[in-house]
Amino acid sequence: MNTYLSTALTLAARGVPAMPLRAGKVPFGNCPACRDNACGGRPNMKTPGPCDCPRPCHAWAAATTDPATLTGAAWASSWKQAAAVAYHPGGIGLTVVDLDHADAVTWARRTLPATRIVPTTRGEHWIYQGAMQSANHVRDGVDIKSTMSYARWRGPGTGTMTTLPDAVRALIVTKPSPVRLVTAHVPTGGAECRHRTPVYLERGIAMAEQRITAATSGVHATVYRTFLAVLSTHGRCGCLTDTHAARLFAAAQTKGESPRHCTDAWSNARTALGM
């Protein structure tokens, strides 16, 4: 059996969602709609786009503990080309502080509580018990990999894993998400816009919040499709306000979406609708 596939199956048996990586620590596109980033994911396919393809999709969303998926036809060629194995830390309630060089390691030793450490090519992975929002470049040579992110598997490491400290959480400063007002002409003919009925608009926003909150997988795609549906139904008359959009952003962020992902999904939905 392929060495990387064997490692992934071992991880999956321990409840760790795993996936193959190609050269450059970049995920594979696992369906025609996702290849060459066609579905709108992040550069190098490190973040899934709003596609409707069957799982496994690409990036962190592909990580799985299902041995049938790992050994299935969708990944048969991927394992042959694989250069590494990755896992989804947030999927098992972990956070990886990725220290990319010696100075970053020195900073961590002076600043952060000791925990399990995994050596990497240029630095170390410090692994804490607890999940949080992922973010890159929180300081020089330091990335946070947890929810909606993946980390290369380099072995179990050494040391006792400790609880995610506030010092790590504080590295991510969440700023208010910019939300552009959706404006369009109110229908003519003297009829009042139906969206000005508070019950109608409130019900639509509440249903959208519930749809996002109820998502158990494919959160990024669910958020995009929900934003698209809300804008399509409520966004052409000027009734949808910053307050409504902020509620949807808040629901998405409770599921692990970053403010940037929310803003991009909102913008992409507006573009798709010609707004």
Helix content: 25-40%
Q: Look at the structure and give the mean pLDDT.
A: 81
Trace the largest sheet across and list its strands: 5-6-4-8-7
| Unreliable stretches | 40-45, 174-191
What is the count of β-strands?
Answer: 9
What count of helical segments does DSSP give? 9
Instruction: Please identify the structural class as seen in this structure.
Output: alpha+beta
How many angstroms separate the termini? 51 Å
Rg: 21 Å
Specify the overall morphology.
Answer: globular
Can you tag this structure with a few keywords?
single chain; alpha+beta; 5-stranded antiparallel sheet; 4-stranded antiparallel sheet; 9 helices; 34% helix
Walkthrough of the structure:
With 275 residues, the protein is an alpha+beta fold. 34% of the residues lie in helices and 14% in strands. The chain has helices at 3-13, 67-70, 76-81, 102-111, 166-169, 198-213, 219-234, 242-254, 259-272; strands at residues 18-22, 26-27, 84-87, 94-99, 116-119, 124-129, 135-139, 142-145, 151-152. The strands form two sheets. It has a five-stranded antiparallel β-sheet. Strands 2-1-3-9 form a four-stranded antiparallel β-sheet. The chain is globular, with a radius of gyration of 21 Å. Mean pLDDT is 81; it is low at 40-45 and 174-191.
